[in-house]
Amino acid sequence: MARVTVEDCLRQVPNRFALVLLATRRTRQLLEGAKPLVKAKNKAAIIALREIAQNKVRIKPKEPGKAG
């Protein structure tokens, strides 16, 4: 499988800070037992980046009026 790059991920999530948050959250989910959305035999962080690059996971926008 081809290498995943930050540029691949930034095409899906144009804000690099949001990309870091999304990758971190998805990596934690994978480490806690979530099923990967792509086929890969890599560490959780790389799988998370592959999922982002392939547009399999997205940031859910906050609902108006909710704190946090």
Molecular structure report:
The protein is mostly helical. It has a single domain (6-53), classed as RNA polymerase subunit, RPB6/omega (Eukaryotic RPB6 RNA polymerase subunit, Alpha-Beta Complex), CATH 3.90.940. The protein is built from 3 helices and no strands. The chain has helices spanning 6-12, 16-31, 44-53. Helix 1 (6-12) crosses helix 3 and helix 2 (16-31) packs across helix 3 (44-53). The radius of gyration is 12 Å and the shape is globular. 19% of the residues are buried. The mean pLDDT is 90.
- By oligomeric state, this entry counts as single chain
Count the beta strands: 0
Q: What is the CATH superfamily label? A: RNA polymerase subunit, RPB6/omega
Proportion in helices: 40-55%
Q: What's the main sheet like?
A: none
Q: State the low-pLDDT regions, or none.
A: none
Through-space gap between termini: 38 Å
Tally of structural domains: 1
Q: What is the strand content?
A: under 5%
Q: What's the pLDDT, averaged over the residues? A: 90
Compressed to H and E, one letter per element, the order equals HHH
Discrete helix count = 3
State the gist of this model.
The chain has 68 residues and is mainly α. Helix content is 49%, strand content 0%. The chain has one domain (6-53): RNA polymerase subunit, RPB6/omega (Eukaryotic RPB6 RNA polymerase subunit).
